[in-house]
Amino acid sequence: MPIDTVERISPRLECLVDDYGLPNVLEALEVICEEKADFARDNWQDYEMEEGWRSAGEAIAQALATL
After folding, report:
1. What is the mean pLDDT of the chain?
2. Distance between CA atoms of residues 47 and 56, nearest Å
3. What is the per-residue pLDDT across 35-62, written as a single tens digit (0 to 9) for each?
């Protein structure tokens, strides 16, 4: 990810973490990944994209389990 993108989104993410806590933010991201996976499968029949989103959600779930 380009550094300017990181610099732009970091303050927003920090606010979310401050307001809701890291576990809740990660859980929300996990849900978003699952929803995007379902959308890719159901609307585009793009199973490769679906798998990518599911993998991302699983990685987030694993990170969440370590907190």
Report:
1. 97
2. 14
3. 999 999 999 999 999 999 999 999 999 9
In the block, which residue shows the tokens 């989104």? 9
The token pair that represents 51 in the structure block: 């798998």
- Residues in contact with 17: Cβ distance below 8 Å, sequence separation at least 6, in sequence order: 25
Residue by residue, DSSP assigns the chain as: --HHHHHHHHHHHHHHHHHH-HHHHHHHHHHHHHHHHHHHHHHH--HHHHHHHHHHHHHHHHHHHT-
Q: Distance between CA 44 and CA 28 in Å, rounded?
A: 23
Token pair for 67: 């907190």
